[in-house]
Amino acid sequence: MYKKIKLTELFKIKDPIIIDVREPDEYRRGCISKATNIPAGTLVDNCEKYLSIHKKYYIYCETSLRSMRVCEFLSDLGYDVYLIEGGYKEWLAIKEILK
């Protein structure tokens, strides 16, 4: 089973590997700092190409729906994955508060 993490907790982790599973056009409009874009379908179809079973990954999409499915799939394969709760919309809300 995958784990969940709040953005406020993610900020405390040194050099987390963050994966944005939205489509490239969504990613280009904005993303969580230091995130790598690998669309959900691409990641699911080629996870062994992009991921190591020995690392932790923090995954998000716009609202957590796609990323939840990706996390379920990857955790079933033995990957150590964390769902970033709230996704990109939560990131935007936090950025607005910090202004």
Output the keywords:
99 residues; Oxidized Rhodanese, domain 1; five-stranded parallel sheet; 43% helix; globular
Describe the structure.
By secondary structure, this protein is an alpha/beta fold. The protein has one domain: 3-Layer(aba) Sandwich (Oxidized Rhodanese, domain 1), CATH 3.40.250. Helices cover 43% and strands 19% of the residues. The protein contains six helices and five strands; from the N terminus they run βαβαβααβαβα. Strands 1-5-4-2-3 form a five-stranded parallel beta sheet. Helix 5 links the parallel strand 4 and strand 5 (80-84). The longest helix has 12 residues, at 65-76. The protein is globular, with a radius of gyration of 13 Å. The relative contact order is 0.24. The mean pLDDT is 96.
Topology:
Elements: E1 3-5, H1 7-10, E2 18-20, H2 24-28, E3 35-37, H3 40-45, H4 47-50, E4 56-60, H5 65-76, E5 80-84, H6 87-98
Parallel strand pairs: 1-5, 2-3, 2-4, 4-5
